[in-house]
Amino acid sequence: EVQLQASGGGLVQPGGSLKLSCSASGFPFKTSVMNWVRQAPGKEQEWLATLYANGGRTIYANSVKGRFTISREDATNTLHLQMNNLKPEDTAVYYCTHLTNRGQGTLVTVSS
Predict the structure, then answer these.
(1) Which residues pair with 29 in a beta bridge?
(2) Which residues contact 5 (CB under 8 A, 6 or more apart)?
(3) Are the CB atoms for 8 and 21 separated by under 8 Å?
(4) Residue 79: is it exposed, middle or buried by C-beta count within 10 angstroms (0-12/13-18/19+)?
(5) CB 72 within 8 A of CB 34
(6) Residue pLDDT, tens place only, 44-70
(7) How far apart are the C-alpha atoms of 49 and 59, rounded to whole Å?
(8) Of 101, 75, 70, 82, whose CA–CA distance to 4 is shortest?
(9) What is the C-alpha to C-alpha distance for residues 43 and 18, in angstroms, rounded to an integer?
(10) Pick from 2, 43, 36, 40: nearest CA to 20
(11) Distance between CA atoms of 26 and 64, rounded to whole angstroms?
């Protein structure tokens, strides 16, 4: 059974940083393409970033390019999202995804 559990969210001021983590199990994480997405209240899910295996190619949505960095720790089956220069519009529940699987998210609130 695929399990994905995001953590690390919280309340942060505009301009601040947070690092999210996602613990993955139930599939071959080391060779899997992984993604971060988010969903703000009342809005559709937004794709943010993808990290490929075997070389670690990354792609980002324009809304987060240059501010967010996706990375992975294959030894612990963990996916990360380093978020810098956060803005109020980044407020959302953040999820990691694998194929069509989206696990439990973590809430990020950017507010002064």
Answers:
(1) none
(2) 22, 23, 103, 104
(3) yes
(4) buried
(5) yes
(6) 999 999 999 877 899 999 999 999 999
(7) 6
(8) 101
(9) 22
(10) 36
(11) 29
Q: How far apart are CA 35 and CA 70, in angstroms?
A: 8
DSSP state of 104: B
What confidence score (pLDDT) does residue 55 get?
A: 72
Tell me which residue of 72, 24, 68, 73 sits closest to 49, measured CA to CA. 68
Q: Tokens standing for 96?
A: 């990691």
User: Are residues 48 and 62 in contact, defined by beta-carbon separation less than 8 angstroms?
Assistant: no
Average pLDDT over residues 9-38: 97
- Amino acid, single-letter form, for residue 112: S
Contact 48, 37 (CB under 8 A): yes
Per-residue pLDDT tens digits for 65-96: 999 999 999 999 999 999 999 999 999 999 99
Stated length of the chain: 112
